[in-house]
Write a structure and sequence with these properties.
alpha/beta, three-stranded antiparallel beta sheet, 8 helices, 9 strands, globular
Length: 178
Protein backbone atom coordinates (compact mmCIF):
# COMPACT_ATOMS: atom_id res chain seq x y z
CA UNK A 1 0.00 0.00 0.00
CA UNK A 2 0.93 3.63 -0.54
CA UNK A 3 0.11 6.43 1.90
CA UNK A 4 -0.75 9.82 0.43
CA UNK A 5 -1.84 13.20 1.72
CA UNK A 6 -2.31 16.82 0.76
CA UNK A 7 -2.37 19.62 3.29
CA UNK A 8 -5.50 21.74 2.98
CA UNK A 9 -7.18 24.63 4.83
CA UNK A 10 -8.27 22.31 7.68
CA UNK A 11 -4.63 21.99 8.76
CA UNK A 12 -4.38 25.64 9.86
CA UNK A 13 -7.99 25.89 11.05
CA UNK A 14 -7.24 23.50 13.92
CA UNK A 15 -4.06 25.23 15.10
CA UNK A 16 -3.98 28.04 17.67
CA UNK A 17 -3.98 31.41 15.89
CA UNK A 18 -0.81 32.52 17.70
CA UNK A 19 1.09 29.45 16.47
CA UNK A 20 1.25 30.22 12.75
CA UNK A 21 1.04 33.19 10.44
CA UNK A 22 -1.00 32.48 7.28
CA UNK A 23 0.63 29.76 5.20
CA UNK A 24 -2.09 28.87 2.69
CA UNK A 25 0.61 28.68 -0.01
CA UNK A 26 1.45 25.24 1.45
CA UNK A 27 -2.07 23.87 0.79
CA UNK A 28 -3.06 21.76 -2.21
CA UNK A 29 -6.07 19.83 -3.48
CA UNK A 30 -6.18 16.11 -2.65
CA UNK A 31 -8.15 15.42 -5.85
CA UNK A 32 -5.06 16.33 -7.91
CA UNK A 33 -3.32 13.30 -6.38
CA UNK A 34 -6.05 10.91 -7.49
CA UNK A 35 -4.71 10.17 -11.03
CA UNK A 36 -1.37 9.15 -9.48
CA UNK A 37 -3.05 6.88 -6.94
CA UNK A 38 -5.27 5.36 -9.62
CA UNK A 39 -2.15 4.60 -11.69
CA UNK A 40 -0.54 2.95 -8.65
CA UNK A 41 -3.71 0.91 -8.00
CA UNK A 42 -3.45 -0.38 -11.57
CA UNK A 43 0.04 -1.61 -10.62
CA UNK A 44 -1.31 -3.55 -7.64
CA UNK A 45 -1.08 -1.06 -4.81
CA UNK A 46 -3.82 0.13 -2.47
CA UNK A 47 -3.88 3.85 -1.64
CA UNK A 48 -4.54 5.21 1.86
CA UNK A 49 -5.35 8.90 2.11
CA UNK A 50 -3.80 10.18 5.35
CA UNK A 51 -4.39 13.28 7.48
CA UNK A 52 -5.67 14.06 10.96
CA UNK A 53 -7.63 17.13 9.86
CA UNK A 54 -8.98 17.34 6.31
CA UNK A 55 -11.39 19.83 4.78
CA UNK A 56 -13.33 17.42 2.59
CA UNK A 57 -13.63 13.72 1.84
CA UNK A 58 -11.75 12.21 -1.07
CA UNK A 59 -14.01 11.52 -4.04
CA UNK A 60 -13.17 8.12 -5.55
CA UNK A 61 -15.23 5.09 -6.48
CA UNK A 62 -12.20 2.81 -6.52
CA UNK A 63 -12.37 0.35 -3.58
CA UNK A 64 -8.56 0.15 -3.49
CA UNK A 65 -8.37 3.87 -2.64
CA UNK A 66 -9.32 4.33 1.00
CA UNK A 67 -10.04 7.69 2.59
CA UNK A 68 -8.60 6.62 5.93
CA UNK A 69 -8.39 10.28 7.03
CA UNK A 70 -12.19 10.60 7.16
CA UNK A 71 -13.31 7.08 8.07
CA UNK A 72 -10.77 5.53 10.46
CA UNK A 73 -8.09 8.03 11.49
CA UNK A 74 -6.03 7.45 14.66
CA UNK A 75 -2.62 8.52 15.95
CA UNK A 76 -1.52 4.90 16.25
CA UNK A 77 -2.49 4.05 12.65
CA UNK A 78 -0.68 7.14 11.34
CA UNK A 79 2.54 5.77 12.78
CA UNK A 80 1.86 2.14 11.86
CA UNK A 81 0.84 2.89 8.27
CA UNK A 82 3.70 5.34 7.75
CA UNK A 83 6.15 2.73 9.05
CA UNK A 84 4.88 -0.04 6.78
CA UNK A 85 3.84 1.66 3.53
CA UNK A 86 5.66 0.87 0.28
CA UNK A 87 6.18 4.60 -0.04
CA UNK A 88 4.59 7.92 0.86
CA UNK A 89 3.28 10.45 -1.66
CA UNK A 90 2.46 13.91 -0.42
CA UNK A 91 3.49 17.39 0.54
CA UNK A 92 5.33 18.87 3.49
CA UNK A 93 2.44 18.84 5.96
CA UNK A 94 4.65 17.05 8.48
CA UNK A 95 3.20 13.56 8.23
CA UNK A 96 5.85 12.77 5.61
CA UNK A 97 8.36 12.58 8.46
CA UNK A 98 6.84 9.35 9.79
CA UNK A 99 7.86 7.22 6.78
CA UNK A 100 11.24 8.99 6.78
CA UNK A 101 11.84 7.94 10.40
CA UNK A 102 11.15 4.33 9.42
CA UNK A 103 13.32 4.59 6.27
CA UNK A 104 10.39 4.26 3.91
CA UNK A 105 10.80 6.13 0.61
CA UNK A 106 8.93 9.39 0.09
CA UNK A 107 7.83 11.17 -3.07
CA UNK A 108 7.18 14.77 -2.10
CA UNK A 109 5.12 16.95 -4.40
CA UNK A 110 3.80 20.48 -3.94
CA UNK A 111 6.68 21.02 -1.54
CA UNK A 112 7.33 24.56 -0.36
CA UNK A 113 9.57 26.15 0.81
CA UNK A 114 11.98 24.33 -1.45
CA UNK A 115 15.07 24.60 0.79
CA UNK A 116 13.33 22.78 3.64
CA UNK A 117 12.73 19.51 1.88
CA UNK A 118 13.67 16.47 3.95
CA UNK A 119 14.61 13.83 1.41
CA UNK A 120 17.43 11.86 3.00
CA UNK A 121 16.98 8.47 1.38
CA UNK A 122 18.58 7.99 -2.07
CA UNK A 123 15.21 6.57 -3.22
CA UNK A 124 13.34 9.76 -2.25
CA UNK A 125 12.03 12.17 -4.87
CA UNK A 126 10.58 15.65 -4.69
CA UNK A 127 9.25 18.43 -6.83
CA UNK A 128 8.63 21.88 -5.38
CA UNK A 129 5.75 24.17 -6.09
CA UNK A 130 6.72 26.64 -8.78
CA UNK A 131 6.70 30.42 -8.41
CA UNK A 132 5.20 32.73 -11.03
CA UNK A 133 6.67 36.24 -11.31
CA UNK A 134 3.56 38.32 -12.04
CA UNK A 135 5.47 41.40 -13.21
CA UNK A 136 7.46 39.44 -15.80
CA UNK A 137 4.77 36.86 -16.61
CA UNK A 138 7.11 33.90 -16.20
CA UNK A 139 8.23 31.21 -13.77
CA UNK A 140 11.17 31.89 -11.49
CA UNK A 141 14.21 29.73 -12.08
CA UNK A 142 15.60 27.64 -9.23
CA UNK A 143 18.61 29.96 -9.17
CA UNK A 144 16.32 32.99 -8.74
CA UNK A 145 14.40 31.24 -5.97
CA UNK A 146 17.64 30.52 -4.12
CA UNK A 147 19.26 33.95 -4.54
CA UNK A 148 16.08 35.92 -3.73
CA UNK A 149 15.38 33.90 -0.58
CA UNK A 150 11.99 32.75 -1.93
CA UNK A 151 13.13 29.15 -1.48
CA UNK A 152 12.99 29.75 2.32
CA UNK A 153 9.88 31.90 2.75
CA UNK A 154 7.24 30.52 5.08
CA UNK A 155 4.51 33.18 5.12
CA UNK A 156 1.92 34.09 2.49
CA UNK A 157 2.74 37.81 2.71
CA UNK A 158 6.38 37.22 1.66
CA UNK A 159 5.27 35.81 -1.70
CA UNK A 160 2.71 38.61 -2.13
CA UNK A 161 5.28 41.34 -1.37
CA UNK A 162 7.59 39.98 -4.06
CA UNK A 163 4.72 39.72 -6.56
CA UNK A 164 4.78 35.93 -6.73
CA UNK A 165 1.99 33.47 -7.32
CA UNK A 166 2.54 29.99 -5.89
CA UNK A 167 1.67 27.30 -8.46
CA UNK A 168 0.70 23.78 -7.38
CA UNK A 169 2.03 20.66 -9.08
CA UNK A 170 -0.33 19.41 -11.79
CA UNK A 171 -1.99 15.98 -11.62
CA UNK A 172 0.31 14.94 -14.49
CA UNK A 173 3.43 16.05 -12.59
CA UNK A 174 2.28 14.26 -9.44
CA UNK A 175 1.62 11.10 -11.45
CA UNK A 176 5.05 11.30 -13.09
CA UNK A 177 6.76 11.52 -9.69
CA UNK A 178 4.67 8.63 -8.29
Amino acid sequence: FVCFTARDEAYSAHRPKYQHAPMSHRNSDIQTYLPAIEALVQRGYAGLRMGAEVAKPLVSRNPAIIDYATIAWSDFLDIFLGAHCRFYLGDGAGLHNVPIIFRRPVALVNFIPMEYTTTWNPRDLFIPKTLWLRSERRLMTFQEMLTSGASRWQRDYEYAQYGLEVINSTPEEITAVA
